[in-house]
Structure formats: C-alpha cells, structure tokens
Design goal:
With 102 residues, this protein is an alpha+beta fold. The chain has one domain: GIY-YIG endonuclease (3-Layer(aba) Sandwich). The chain contains four helices and three strands. Strands 2-1-3 form a three-stranded antiparallel sheet, with helices on both faces. It is globular, with a radius of gyration of 13 Å.
C-alpha cells in the first residue's frame, strides 16, 4: 500500500472540450492547468475547469481508470460528469491561490 492518494480528473473548456488526467496532487495540477503552465492540449484549448474527479489509494488503479475513461466515447464521459455535476461547475473554485500563498 502506497499511503498516497491519486486522482483521476476531467477538466473542460468553456466550449466543453474535455481532458482526462491523473495526478498525485490535484490542487497543484489544476493550478498548473489554470495558469497555463502545462504546454499542450489543455493550454491550446483553454481547458481550465475541473468538472469531475475521483480519488484512489493505488496509482495502478488511478492509471487504469484514466485509460478506461480516455477510451470511452464522449457521451459516456458526459454522463459521468453529469451524474455528479449536472451544471458542469468548476469544482476547484476556492482552491486557486492556496499554492501561490494568496
């Protein structure tokens, strides 16, 4: 047992472009996405809202879930998001600033 927590998360842009990721520090990773510190897909498409996340005790479980979700059709991802967050609100509201000391 690792003793750490790992997260699978789904982020969305204002136009609902989706990104699925995995991390052991969700607040730090979301901060990086929101500040455009992560080059690539999320920066290119303006993906800054956390719309869904789940925690896992083992990294292998988190990675397996991430891969599974990435393989789903968009409709199934939308169903997952809307089952817990029907308004697609940014679940990270209030997190921003914790890491920067503000």
């Amino acid at each position: 047992m690792s003793g750490r927590t790992y997260f699978v998360y789904i982020m969305a842009s204002r136009t609902c472009t989706l990104y699925v990721g995995v991390t052991n520090d969700l607040e730090r990773r979301v901060f990086e996405h929101k500040q455009n510190l992560v080059a690539g897909f999320t920066r290119k498409y303006g993906i800054t809202r956390v719309v869904c996340f789940e925690s896992y005790g083992e990294v292998v479980d988190a990675i397996a879930t991430e891969k599974q979700i990435k393989g789903w059709r968009r409709a199934r991802k939308v169903d997952l998001i809307e089952s817990a967050n029907s308004r697609w609100r940014d679940l990270s509201e209030g997190w921003h600033g914790k890491l920067s000391g503000n």
